[in-house]
Structure formats: C-alpha cells, structure tokens
Design a protein that fits this description.
heterodimer, A: alpha/beta, Fe-only Hydrogenase (Larger Subunit), Chain L, domain 3, 3 domains, four-stranded parallel sheet, three-stranded parallel sheet, 22 helices, 15 strands, B: 85 residues, alpha+beta, four-stranded mixed sheet, 4 helices, 21% strand, binds FE2/S2 (inorganic) cluster
C-alpha cells in the first residue's frame, strides 16, 4: 500500500484550492487571486527571504493549474493579467482553459535535482579492502582525503561500487519524479527540469505527489465547478467507491450524500452502481470468450497496456469503466445537466476528456476544499439512505476487488466450473502491472483474468485522497463486511 | 498521577482537509507510557478556523493550538506528560 504522507507541498495545494473556492463563493475572486501568493506565504520576522520568494512563485504558478488553465499558454502571464478574462476562465470558455492537458511541469520552480548519479557519502570509512575500487570496471574510483572519490569523467554509472561497498556508503541520487514514473514518461533531454512525454504518460499522478518542490502539477476543474455551484446551476455528482472514509471516519456515506446536496448538487449517485453493471458485463464477456481479459476500470492501466504492451491491447475488456458507464446512462436521461465525478484519481480526468463524459472530474482533495469553503460539515449532516449497489461493487476501490466482483457475477450466473479453473492475476500498482504484463508477453505466465490498478493498494491509495489509505481500506472492509481479497 | 491530559483533535471539514487524520494516527502511535496519561477526544469544528486560527486545530487541556503537525503534537505531549508524572 502506498505510504501516505501529508507534506507541506500537498498542504499548500489544498490551501490554494480552498482560497480559490472561497473567492468564487464569496464573489471576490478577482481581487483575491493576485494577492494569494502573499496571503498564503506571509513574511515573518527572521524568515529566509529568498525562500519566501521561491514559495510565492510556487503558489503563483500553482494557481494557474487550479484555475484549470493550459500552462503552456499562461506560463509567462502575471496573475493580474489573468483576472481580465476570469469570467471566461471560470465558465470554461476561455482559449486559455486546458482541454487535453492534464499534467504540467513548472520548469522554473524545479530544483533541477542532479539525478541518476552515484555519490560516495560520509559513511565511507576508508577501509582497507577497497572493494569499490576493485569492483569498478572503469577504474573510476580513487581515494582522496581519506575517502573514496568517483571520477566523473571515467564513471559509467553502472553502480557496481554501490553494490560492493560493505557499508552501503555509495548511493545513487535519484530524481523523485523520474524514479516514481513507471512508464518512463519523464525524460531530461538536454534540460535540467523534467519533460513529460504525453504519449507515454498514463496520468497516474505519481510524479506530482513525489516532487518535493511542487514543480509538477495537475490541471484542476475545481474553479469551474465552484463557479457553477455559486450560480446555482443544475449539476449531477457521481462519486467513486473509494469515497468511503474520505471525509473522516465520522462521516457516513449517507451523510456524504447529503453534504454533496448541500453543496448544491441536484442529484447524487454512487459510481458503485456502474461497478455492478461492469462486473456483470465482464463476467459475461469472460464466459463467452476464451482469450484472457484485462480489466478496464483503471484508465492508467489501460493506457499503459496500449502504449507499452501493444500486442496485448486486444485483451483489454471492451466494457467501459464504471464512471463512464454511469455517466453515459445519466447523460442519455438528461443531456443538458453537467456531470461531475469525484474520486481519488487523476487518470480519470484524461479518461473523461477522451470519452466526452463526465463533464468535470474532481479529486477528494478538491471536494474537501469545496466543503470547507462552503462551511459544510458532513459529520453534522442528516444523512440519506439510497445505497443500491452490492458490497462487491464498492470493493472496486481496493486492489483485488474488481477481480473478486467479476468472480461474484460468474458464480451468480452459475458458471461454477469456469470459476474453478479460472486463473487470476492481480497486479497491484503500476510496477507490478509492468512485471505481470512482461511475464505474459514472454509467455512465462498465463492468466484468464488480469486485474490491474496503477495505484499500489487500489483507488483507496490514489493521488487525490484525503484519508490515509490504510484507514480508508479498513473502513471499506468494515462497512461492507468484505473479507480478505483472494489472490 | 490522576490528572489526565485532555487532547481534543478537531475533525471538522477545514481541519480534516489540512490533515487532522494524520494527528489522530500520531496519537494512536504514542507509546503506552504516554498514552495512559492522555485522554483523546475527536471534536467537531471548534468554530475558530474561520477566524484567527489556522487548521488543523487541537485543544489541549482547554488551550487551542493551531497549524498542528504530528511532530509538534508529539513533542508537546511528551513535555506535558513528563511534567504531570
Ligand atoms: S474545522 Fe477545525 S476548528 Fe473548524
């Protein structure tokens, strides 16, 4: 399970979301925006000044992402220049609004970490064995000043010295963005800051949450949704199964629903209904086809297969994801009402744009900011009961849950024999997905059903969650009486 | 030692957004030695977050502490627990 650490960069982003939503709800967003960097990063006596300017610059650039803008187009604009076309920006009609861009690099706040090189640390004891020297194929290590020293001109970065040192005194300094990116979409082509290849990027969001300087950011829809809410426009909200526990352990799903309505949403649906349809349809597909089937609910996993393992892409389930299935159905009924999806996921933003529905995608982080800005306390809400989906469908939120749901529907259809002989692979996290897909390509392993989720632990551990994934998972299992997942 | 330290962690919306759940985990992970000197409560919004206090807010023995972090909370409690024993 992904370790969830609430660092100052994540807090800063949440503060920006909160301030922007407040400004929109209170009607003073135009005046507020240019002042935000100074409001959020005040100077206190004795502060290190350059640091303050650095942090203010980070806030300034992140505001552009929070406003849903295409960063390539607004990079060089000052905040006051944006306020001129703010109405169009908020209603989503400005040419500056991002349409198909979901991630961006704020190159000038990037700390330009020197990545991928080996360094001798202070742990070096200048031992007598000199294993590092004898392990080096290029004779790149000398002893100088009582310590091993790597000669950069000779070093080929093979890492054999690091492996050989008995004190583990030689380390590779890795760029957090680069090492978090399993699809290797992050490159440094003659630049010191990362460049994200849009073709390879699966929008899993891991680089965003791993950058300690906040130099990678995702484009938000929060301002556009807040704007519509402030004008009391009719909207439908649908929320992911991973919503369980996201507003704190005290808030029930029923109260969560009421809170969404209090925020101003006209109708509220749980995506778990769609998860039931999807699991049932996938069970049917599996029983009628002899080829393997890969689950399609995680858009990052799907894109990963399509770009990295093209030969396997015909095995991707033809059934749309629960979010798309439900949104399409609701659109048929009410084509004019915008639909907002709330979940833990950034890849869903891309999936929504590619499918034309839903209209907006928010993370739980963004929703939390909207609740706080509107001063809604979900734990104080009445609560309305409308649960229609099966427990099995809610389990889509955790790794292994989708495969389990498909099995549930196979059994329901009386396919006991098929279930008995079914070989299931559960790939938990993008690194495991890569491993599994590699083994399948090489013919080392055969599965009938492969469930892949890009986030380690499943959606409960997505990049946009508010609650520690471990706590959220515990709450999910408790609420729906889900036993341990079978592997 | 009979007086317990009362720690109230706000789990209101603003405090939750700014990480009160991490503070709850911090309290759960305290060593038994300290934990037995502490009474933990979860509280609804103290109604101070829209004024001069920045979330997450914690009330310890009646005093408000804002912008609380796990480290600061642990440190404070260690110090206070040391004084009461
Ligand atoms: S939410 Fe914590 S004081 Fe208001």
């Amino acid at each position: 399970m992904r370790r969830h650490i609430l660092n100052d960069i994540i807090k800063l982003r949440r503060k920006i979301y909160l301030e922007i939503s407040k400004g929109i709800f209170e009607g003073n967003i135009k005046e507020r925006i240019p002042k935000l960097p100074k409001i959020l990063i005040p100077v206190k006596n004795g502060d290190h000044k350059p640091r303050i300017f650095y942090e203010r610059e980070i806030v300034k650039e992140k505001i552009k992402f929070a406003l849903g803008l295409n960063y390539d187009k607004v990079k060089d604009l000052e905040l006051y220049e944006l306020t001129e076309s703010l109405d169009e920006i908020l209603s989503g009609t400005s040419p500056l609004n991002a349409k198909t861009k979901h991630m961006g690099v704020i190159s000038h706040v990037c700390n330009e970490c020197p990545g991928g090189r080996f360094y001798v640390t202070d742990l070096c004891r200048n031992c007598l064995a000199h294993t590092c020297m004898s392990s080096c194929p290029r004779k790149a290590i000398e002893i100088s000043d009582g310590k091993a020293l790597i000669n950069r001109d000779k070093c080929i970065n093979c890492g054999l010295c690091a492996l050989s040192c008995p004190y583990k005194a030689i380390m590779k300094l890795e760029r957090p963005c680069e090492s978090s990116c399993v699809p290797r979409a992050i490159t440094f082509e003659g630049t010191m800051f990362p460049i994200i290849s849009e073709e390879k990027c699966v929008t899993c969001g891991m680089c965003e949450i791993s950058c300690p300087f906040g130099a990678i950011e995702t484009v938000s829809n929060i301002a556009q949704v807040a704007f519509k809410l402030s004008r009391k426009e009719k909207m439908t909200v649908i929320f992911a199964p991973s919503a369980v526990g996201q507003m704190g352990g005290r808030v029930t799903l029923e109260q969560f629903r009421t809170a969404l309505r209090e925020l101003g949403f006209h109708s509220v649906y749980e995506v778990a209904i769609g998860a039931d349809w999807v699991a049932e349809a996938e069970a049917r597909h599996l029983s009628r086809h002899s080829e393997p089937m890969f689950t399609s609910c995680c858009p990052a996993f799907v894109k990963f297969i399509k770009t990295r393992f093209q030969s396997l892409s015909s095995y991707i389930s033809p059934v749309p994801s629960p979010m798309i299935a439900l949104a399409k159905k609701l659109k048929e009924k009410d084509p004019c009402v915008p639909i907002v999806f709330v979940g833990p996921c950034i890849a869903k933003k891309r999936e929504a744009v590619e499918n034309g529905v839903p209209d907006f995608v928010l993370t739980f982080e963004e929703l939390g900011a909207l609740f706080a800005a509107a001063q809604i306390e979900p734990s104080q809400c009445e609560g309305e009961d409308e649960r229609k989906a099966t427990p099995t469908a809610w389990n889509f939120a955790s790794s292994g849950g989708v495969a389990k749901a498909v099995v549930f529907y196979l059994e329901k259809a009386g396919e006991y024999e098929l279930v008995q002989n079914l070989s299931i692979g559960v790939a938990n996290g993008l690194a495991e997905c890569e491993e599994t897909l590699n083994s399948i390509t090489k013919g080392k392993i055969e599965y009938d059903l492969v469930e892949g989720m890009a986030c380690e632990g499943g959606c409960v551990a997505g990049p946009g969650v508010l609650t520690d994934p471990r706590m959220a998972l515990k709450e999910l299992k408790r609420l729906f009486n889900l036993n341990e997942v079978r592997k | 030692m009979d007086e317990k330290i009362t720690v109230e962690v706000c789990v209101g919306t603003s405090c939750h957004l700014m990480g009160s759940s991490v503070l709850i985990s911090t309290l759960e992970e305290l060593s038994a030695d300290i934990a037995r000197k502490i009474k933990t409560k979860l509280s609804l919004c103290f109604e101070v977050c829209h004024g001069d206090k920045n979330p997450p807010v914690v009330r310890i023995n009646g005093d408000f502490y804002d912008e609380m972090t796990p480290d600061r909370l642990r440190e404070l409690l260690l110090k206070m627990a040391g004084e009461t024993s």
